[in-house]
Amino acid sequence: MNTHDLPELRTETLGAGVVKRATTLADGRDLIYYDDPGTALGAERAVDARTLDPRPDTATMRLDVLTGDWITVAANRQNRVMMPSADADPLAPQTPGNPSEVPSRYDVAVFENRSPAFGPALAEAVGTAPQASNAPRGLDDLAALGLGRTRTSVGRCEVVCFSPDHSGSFGTQSVTRARTVIEAWADRTTAISKLPGIQQIFPFENRGEAIGVTLPHPHGQIYAYPYVTPRTTRLLDSIDRTAPDLFQHILESEQASERVVFRGEHWTAFVPFAARWPLEVHLMPHRHVPDFAETTEAERDELAPLYLRLLRGVDALYDTPTPYIAAWHQAPVHIGRDTVRLHLQLTSPRRAADKLKFLAGSEAAMGAWAAEVPPEVGAARLREAIERSSPNQTPNPTSDGASA
């Protein structure tokens, strides 16, 4: 691609003073910079002058007729980089010796994954994959059972870089940076929801080699699915069988329990009544909100310090950083908007300083779980760890105010 054909930087000011600067990479993938309020970075960004191979064809999904689950087959993901050194970090800003994915220095950067499990349906920009055939034809089409059914794995996979530094995690960022990432999550949820064929959007962070992380760079991802995920499908069924305001009932029940970790003005963190994992904690807004795009400025402002307190407490449980999956569950794009509430489910397989919980026969094969740590014990341990990590901001499970 001729670098002169690349579009100009498209700039927009978002909430909390975050500035969004959108452009494209050399192969046509979207790249968006999110600048911290008061950033030291200039307004200009370098052009991605690399010569890249064409984007891979969009992957294929196969239906498991026994469960109704769609399984993506994305062979291009076999060639992902594994734990590179700092001078070969593909998420660091480009240098003469490291032709990485991000051309310029940044605060937060979001770009389309080069090896996605879910890819574009249409040639939306120069250099993208050819138009996909056999795309899903809606939720009814995807719900139909039959042998040998396939569909193109239409969707979107994005990488969210929390920092230009080579190592770290969300929990090692400043409150200002955390607020910028939250603004990016909200902005990307809004934008991706408008793309054709998208049914659900999932921001998450995998942290630690025990989870399967392949890059030490502080980053998360956003997956946009062409279907409603199995976990959310079961959730929708539970709502249908109980009450439309099931999440409010759960929140009130947990707030009255000894499993509360801390409570702010807009958010409560708690270990759930039927926690599966040795470490499991949920973080839920006090009002019904389907996704990040629908949160208020006040909710986002409080979430930044509260989420950091939670993550730093998780790391304070042991002498070494804790591996985890931080999964932000959002309502589907087109259904369940009035009943499915945005919330975090953070889980870790770590059951002791030197022990991990492995999913073996009963859990992996049958989905029948056995928990080793009582949820009330897990909540008490996490409260103590948060107090150690932030002694001047002791969480009070019964307080209506939030400490930052």
Description:
The chain is an alpha+beta fold. Helices cover 21% and strands 22% of the residues. It has helices at residues 139-143, 175-193, 230-241, 246-255, 297-315, 361-366, 375-389; strands spanning 10-13, 19-24, 30-35, 60-64, 69-73, 108-112, 150-152, 156-161, 200-207, 219-225, 260-263, 267-270, 279-285, 324-329, 343-348, 350-352, 355-356. It has a 12-stranded antiparallel β-sheet, sandwiched between helices. A hairpin with an 8-residue loop joins strand 12 (267-270) and strand 13. Helix 2 (175-193) crosses helix 5 and helix 5 (297-315) crosses helix 7. The longest helix has 19 residues, at 175-193. The termini are far apart.
Oligomer: single chain
Mean pLDDT: 92
Rg estimate, integer Å:
21 Å
Strand order of the largest sheet: 1-2-3-6-8-10-9-14-15-13-12-11
CATH architecture name of the largest domain: 2-Layer Sandwich
Distance, first to last CA: 47 Å
DSSP, total strands: 17
How many structural domains? 2
Major beta-sheet overview: 12 strands, antiparallel
**Coarse morphology:** globular
Low-confidence stretches: 123-130, 397-404
Task: List key phrases describing it.
alpha+beta; three-stranded antiparallel beta sheet; 404 residues; HIT family, subunit A
